[in-house]
Automatic annotation (TrEMBL):
Transmembrane segments: none annotated. Keywords: Monooxygenase, Oxidoreductase. SUPFAM superfamilies: Dimeric alpha+beta barrel. This is Antibiotic biosynthesis monooxygenase.
Amino acid sequence: MSLTINLYYTGKNGSARRFVEEMEKSGIAQHIREEEGNERYEYFFPVNDPETVLLIDSWTDQAAIDKHHASPMMAELAKLREKYDLHMKVERYVPASELKSDEKFIRK
């Protein structure tokens, strides 16, 4: 079962965007994308909120997320979140295909 986590990073004066730039330029984001079990690691910028960045982060299963959380990359990530004084909101999802009760509402 795939798991998707939406992380909203919010800062001030463009700090969330600078965080993303450093994540990409430093190679941390790419390293996470290459971790076993990672299916998606993409940043998006909401049109109506210039101080927030959305990260869509998908993993094959909970074990892959747990391994990621225990990796050295998490310490690097935490340092950058502190550096840019970011606050987070987290949402967790499972694919609609796993929710049989919703099948009748999904046009394929």
